[in-house]
Write a structure and sequence with these properties.
Elements lengths: L8 H21 L5 E2 L13 E5 L2 H4 L2 H6 L5 E9 L2 E8 L7 E8 L2 E3 L2 E4 L1 H4 L3 E4 L3 E4 L1 H15 L4 H13 L1 H11 L2 H13 L3 H5 L1 H15 L3 H18 L4 E6 L6 H12 L5 E6 L25 H28 L2 E6 L4 H4 L10 H8 L7 E6 L2 H7 L5 H16 L4 E5 L4 H24 L4
Parallel strand pairs: 2-5, 10-12, 10-13, 11-12, 13-14
Antiparallel strand pairs: 1-2, 3-4, 4-5, 6-7, 8-9
Helix pairs in contact: 5-6, 5-7, 5-10, 7-8, 12-18, 16-17
């Protein structure tokens, strides 16, 4: 495989735009009319990180099957963050380029905290066609969506101010009128005045009060919304816990296989497919910082512990892995985190000397059965000559022995995959990313119940 490096932001954006155009075609073929809510001015030449859009309520359930039909692309993630709002991540890879992603946030109603600020009917009726590609809301609805969203999030930057001002000056009367729908008469006037004079001090200084104003104004018109919201939120949270959207990936391999280099590049390339990323070394508590961990120069320098101490060490390891997963790793997975491990418990089954384990190997094997397993084990494998040419921290004979042990281990793991680490680094990274993204796509497709 020849990997073409993306050296410019323009090329990366071009690939994303191409993917987005294919998404639009797939939706159009299914008769789904998409309304992009904001940030579309430079489409299709440039698109932002997230695409916020809406469809009719009847089309919301048809979105997954339509996205599944996008050529040379897969649904990597589907995260439900409101009762009628889904955050899709569509990925395209295996085409001689590093993976590219579209973050596609689609909803019916515009809801916050369970209350409907703008209905699906309203958003998808008062709209205009944009460059023949998709629909956009009327100016005042886009203005209402954008300003309420930023105030509810509690952050308004200079970029947001410019965007809102540009909308306001296009239709000031309509924007003033819709402000009175979400704010008291006095607050609506002060907001209008702040935008017209470009003096945002009042809005920034009173943003918490304005947030309460929005919630109260809509809650009064829909008094039962909050109760239904929290019931649905509870059920949604249960589903998120039961079906976490993160992924836990473990890299194994002898010294010289390139684990650290590959892991770091995978983290960088796949970050857009997750909410966040975290790296760990061996244990669930040992987070790797940006500088990385100090490499061990002589992993076999110290003698092994006796049997009693070694078995006690296994018990301590079991405690570390079990409670580390419950307290640290599992919450990250629920929050859509890509968790990457450089080495894991199974390392002790291959290299007892590194961990000074002098107890029976079968006991260590039994402990492995009751430790939380990653979603994927990736073994970076290469001929001993290649591994030794990169690092000489262990002898050539030990490299041969460890390689055979790793291959035997990975072949007995149902979620184990072997990556040829003797290839150039770009190909190794691409192969590892393909395994991870294929797993994510299969899992998401299964959960969505897409008819293949």
């Amino acid at each position: 495989m020849v990997i073409v490096q993306i050296n410019t932001e323009e090329l990366y954006n071009e690939l994303r735009c191409s993917l987005f155009r294919d998404i639009l075609k797939a939706l159009k073929q299914q008769g789904i009319k998409l309304t992009v809510l904001h940030g579309y001015a430079e489409f299709p030449k440039k698109i932002g990180s997230d695409i916020d859009c809406t469809v009719c309520e009847s089309d919301l359930k048809r979105i997954p099957n339509a996205l599944y039909m996008v050529p040379n692309a897969k649904i990597i993630q589907c995260i439900q963050h409101e009762s009628m709002a889904f955050y899709y991540i569509i990925g395209r890879y295996n085409n001689n380029y590093p993976p590219v992603f579209i973050q596609f946030d689609v909803s019916a109603d515009y809801r916050r905290n369970g209350i409907v600020l703008l209905s699906s009917e309203e958003l998808n009726t008062n709209k205009n066609k944009f460059k023949g590609l998709f629909w956009i809301p009327s100016i005042e609805l886009e203005f209402a969506y954008y300003i309420t969203k930023k105030i509810l999030k509690g952050t308004i930057t200079n970029e947001h101010m410019v965007y809102l001002n540009n909308l306001f000056i296009k239709q000031p009367n309509e924007c003033k009128q819709i402000l009175r729908r979400f704010f008291s008469k006095d607050n609506a006037f002060m907001i209008s005045n702040a935008i017209e004079t470009k003096d945002w001090f009042y809005i920034i200084n009173q943003i918490k009060t304005l947030r309460k104003n929005i919630i109260m104004s809509v809650t009064i018109t829909s008094p039962g919304a909050s109760l239904f919201y929290w019931i649905k939120e509870f059920l949604r949270y249960i589903r998120r816990v039961r079906f976490s959207t993160g992924a836990m990936i473990c890299f194994l391999g002898t010294d010289g296989s390139g684990k650290t280099t590959v892991l770091n590049q995978v983290e960088k390339d796949l970050a857009p497919a997750f909410r966040r990323t975290k790296k760990f070394h061996l244990f669930p508590w040992s987070e790797i910082n940006n500088e990385g961990n100090n490499p061990v120069q002589d992993p076999h320098a110290k003698p092994p512990w006796n049997k009693v101490i070694s078995i006690a060490k296994l018990i301590i390891w079991w405690i570390k892995y079990t409670f580390g997963h419950i307290i640290n790793i599992f919450p990250l997975l629920v929050c859509s985190t890509l968790v990457l491990f450089d080495r894991y418990y199974q390392d002790i089954l291959v290299d007892q000397k590194r961990y000074r384990y002098g107890g029976p190997l079968w006991i260590a094997g039994e402990v492995a059965k009751v430790i939380a397993r990653p979603d994927i084990f990736l073994l970076l494998d290469a001929p001993p000559e290649v591994l030794q040419s990169r690092k000489q921290e262990i002898s050539f004979e030990e490299t041969i022995r460890q390689r055979e042990k790793y291959l035997g281990l990975i072949n007995h793991l149902s979620n184990g995959h072997i990556i040829d680490a003797s290839k150039d680094i770009d190909t190794v990274v691409a192969d590892a990313e393909t395994v991870i993204l294929d797993y994510m796509a299969r899992r998401t497709t299964l959960r969505l119940g897409i008819s293949l």
